[in-house]
Every structure is written in structure tokens, then in C-alpha cells.
Write a structure and sequence with these properties.
mainly alpha
């Protein structure tokens, strides 16, 4: 409706991503995860694409860390220690967050929680998030934001 009024230029396809993400919002019972996802949706809807990319990534990492903490903490700590002898075993989700996100993806792939191709896509999302989260000349459009969010929807939010 806003496009018809000339208030917004967001494409119907991109708006559909926000609508799809809002469907998942009702299924997210964890308040912190819900806050990240809701903020990502709002950013996308008002065409703050870099912010939408950053916030959707934070939501996805929150989901993955919670999943590890609740279901695979012992195995995660064993794998982390195997790779890095200085790793202090995580006792909380915040402790898991002390590991760099790229390394975290490597550890959960090694545990077969995500596959090789999913890890590659999530690392691409992380690279984009890093580009959007730091001062630079990177430009992103509605399509890049929508593709990023869709990747996270299909490979994290739907799965975990």
C-alpha cells in the first residue's frame, strides 16, 4: 500500500521477505531472539538494508548458539578444545559467544550440526554482515538484503 502512495519504493518481492520473516516471528518463543529478528524485519521494511543484514545475522547466531548450548554443549567444548588448546569450556551461551563466529561455524560443521554447503552460505552471510557492520563504501540493495535474510530463514530459522 505504501508503494502505491509513493511513500516507499521497496519491491513487492523484497516486501514478501519481510512478510515471510514475520511469519517466523510468531514461532520464536525466546525473547532475545525475537527482538533481533523483529528489529531486522523493521530495518528491512524501512529500507535500512545494512542494518537489516546485521540484525538478521545477530538473530541467526543467537539461534545457533542457543541450539548448541541446549543440545550439544559437551561435544562443542570437546571439539573447540581439540582445535584450540587454549579454549576454556563454555558453561553458558555467552561463553560460546567468546569464540569468533567463523570458528564457531567451523566447529558446528565438524559436529555435523550444519553441512559443508550450509556453512559456506553462512560464512558468506557473515562476510556480508562484516561488510555492513563496519564503516566502508559497501553498498547493498533491497535484493542483497532479501537474499541474505532468505538464506538465514531457510538454513537457520526454519531448521533450528
Amino acid at each position: 500500500h505504501l508503494r502505491e502512495l509513493g511513500v516507499s519504493t521497496i519491491s513487492p518481492a523484497a516486501m514478501q521477505v519481510a512478510v515471510d520473516l514475520r511469519k517466523y516471528l510468531t514461532d520464536i518463543t525466546d525473547g532475545q531472539t525475537r527482538d533481533f529478528v523483529e528489529e531486522a524485519i523493521k530495518c528491512h521494511e524501512v529500507e535500512l538494508y545494512r542494518s537489516a543484514i546485521v540484525m538478521s545475522w545477530l538473530g541467526a547466531v543467537d539461534v545457533l548458539q542457543k541450539h548448541i548450548y541446549q543440545n550439544h554443549l559437551i561435544a562443542f567444548n570437546v571439539e573447540a578444545k581439540r582445535v584450540n588448546s587454549k579454549w576454556k569450556p563454555a558453561k553458558s551461551q555467552d561463553d560460546i559467544g567468546k569464540m569468533g563466529e567463523s570458528d564457531f561455524l567451523d566447529r558446528i560443521e565438524a559436529l555435523s550440526i550444519i553441512g559443508k554447503n550450509v556453512k559456506a552460505q553462512l560464512k558468506a552471510c557473515l562476510d556480508l554482515r562484516n561488510g555492513c557492520g563496519h564503516p566502508n563504501t559497501l553498498k547493498v540493495s533491497v535484493n542483497k538484503s532479501a537474499a541474505h535474510i532468505e538464506t538465514l530463514l531457510q538454513n537457520v530459522f526454519e531448521k533450528f
